[in-house]
Amino acid sequence: MHTHPLANWYRSHFETQLHGRYITLDAIFPLLQKLPSHNNVQQIGTSVLHRPIHSLTIGNGEKKILMWSQMHGNESTTTKAVFDLLHFLNDDSEASRAILANCTLCVIPMLNPDGAQAYTRVNANEIDLNRDAQALSQPESVVLKAVFDEFQPDYCFNLHGQRTIFSAGNHDKSAIVSFLTPSEDEQRSVTPNRQKSMEIIVRMNEMLQKLIPNHVGRYDDGFNLNCVGDTFQSLGIPTVLFEAGHFPGDYQREKTRELIFYALIEAIQYISSTEITGAYTDAYFQIPENKKQHYDIILKNVQTEQNEVLDLGIMYKEVLKNGKIHFEPYIEDKKILKKSFAHKIIDFQDTIAQKYIFQSFSLEDQVIEYLRKFNKIDN
């Protein structure tokens, strides 16, 4: 496993004011205000609950890249990476100068501030903005489409986060980062636009394989024109979906954030320095597809008072309490487990846990209490 060339720079330059999973407009607004004037920060609209939505434009090159984050309010990892990226672009280095000379970036760091505040996927009208690309029924959707029409990007980066259930293929390898070039028709045709975004993804994957080998996945490309990526791809703009997933033990998604930063830098530098033709599609399809194969925890050989022995598949639910995200365990599957792997396995036969005997009539409450006491991951 390698270290990224920017690792030392990153450790001393990442945005320290953003940490954890709960990232709101209140957290990013002061950072937007502090950006240098050449970032051209402006309010481009408001949410359902009248919270401002901002964009910033930086660079003056011919190649135009539009990116947006927190379309789903509880997918905040890429927002942190975006601000790390802005630190890089505003650092006066040869690399940043080259990017800004060749590219113009338009960034919407938080498209769904109401969802971010409530820590929900949907907006305040309980609409999934990533299923509203055709109807444009929500003010946030209208804002994004208006920016798209006015900016006329050459490339789009659709920045998301994904759950801990995903593996990179049918292997015990979490999908730490996943990518997709969305389809633009029901046949999922490999069009020139898709080929260009595939080439960018292949480049990012080559870099990430050195850092997190076998932990990169390829997201499902089922066609749905209501999705923003599919719509923008169908309008002729090569679009890349980024999915920030689970690095082992990293429930706050700080290591994943760093990897997304490296992926963004790789993609932008590649666009900046390369005439992209879409020549590497075979390598794209060699990236393993995401599979839903992981529990957060498997408890093996749990014994009840009735001498029943169970395997339990545990997942965490992310719950907002008092301005902090808490990871609340629940039993998803008992005995016959539907998934193959877990981020942590506790075997009650060969660990200190073996002294615990559970009453079967209140099994769930007892298991949850055990996990809260002995397996806390909130920080």
TrEMBL record:
<feature type="domain" description="Peptidase M14">
    <location>
        <begin position="11"/>
        <end position="271"/>
    </location>
</feature>
<dbReference type="GO" id="GO:0008270">
    <property type="term" value="F:zinc ion binding"/>
</dbReference>
<dbReference type="GO" id="GO:0005615">
    <property type="term" value="C:extracellular space"/>
</dbReference>
<dbReference type="InterPro" id="IPR000834">
    <property type="entry name" value="Peptidase_M14"/>
</dbReference>
<keyword id="KW-0121">Carboxypeptidase</keyword>
<dbReference type="Pfam" id="PF00246">
    <property type="entry name" value="Peptidase_M14"/>
</dbReference>
<dbReference type="GO" id="GO:0006508">
    <property type="term" value="P:proteolysis"/>
</dbReference>
<keyword id="KW-0862">Zinc</keyword>
<keyword id="KW-0378">Hydrolase</keyword>
<dbReference type="GO" id="GO:0004181">
    <property type="term" value="F:metallocarboxypeptidase activity"/>
</dbReference>
<keyword id="KW-0482">Metalloprotease</keyword>
<comment type="similarity">
    <text>Belongs to the peptidase M14 family.</text>
</comment>
<keyword id="KW-0645">Protease</keyword>
<protein>
    <submittedName>
        <fullName>Zinc carboxypeptidase</fullName>
    </submittedName>
</protein>
<feature type="active site" description="Proton donor/acceptor">
    <location>
        <position position="243"/>
    </location>
</feature>
